[in-house]
């Protein structure tokens, strides 16, 4: 399994987690924070404000997603660098030049 595949799996997992965290939030200020604790200043399960926790987890997952994407791009370039071309290996290369060139298209004389 290549490093790019590992990064790809991690990117998918982080993306799913990010979607889950975003879906839990309510854009109007409700969401999980209002349904569990009511007020924003109450302590719920050891977290001061559930909204703050969701905001921080959103930013953390988004940052992690960007870092994983950049690292996967670097690992993909490294994988391509390791593979040599057929020219460098001295392998057989198909002839891409045709045996005969096509005849030029004749244009009517402008007399």
Automatic annotation (TrEMBL):
GO molecular-function terms, A-Z: protein-transporting ATPase activity
GO CC terms, sorted: plasma membrane
GO BP, one annotated term: protein secretion
Subcellular location: Cell membrane
Keyword Ribonucleoprotein: no
NCBIfam families: secG (TIGR00810)
Protein name: Protein-export membrane protein SecG
Organism: Cellulophaga algicola (strain DSM 14237 / IC166 / ACAM 630)
């Amino acid at each position: 399994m290549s490093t790019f595949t590992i990064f790809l799996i991690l990117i998918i997992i982080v993306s799913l987690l990010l979607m889950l965290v975003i879906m839990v939030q309510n854009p109007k200020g409700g969401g999980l924070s209002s349904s569990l604790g009511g007020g924003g200043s109450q302590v719920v399960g050891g977290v001061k404000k559930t909204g703050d926790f969701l905001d921080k987890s959103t930013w953390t997952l988004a940052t992690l997603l960007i870092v994983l994407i950049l690292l996967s791009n670097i690992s993909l370039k490294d994988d391509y660098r390791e593979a040599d071309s057929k020219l460098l290996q001295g392998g057989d290369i198909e002839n891409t030049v045709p045996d005969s060139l096509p005849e030029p298209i004749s244009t009517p004389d402008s007399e």
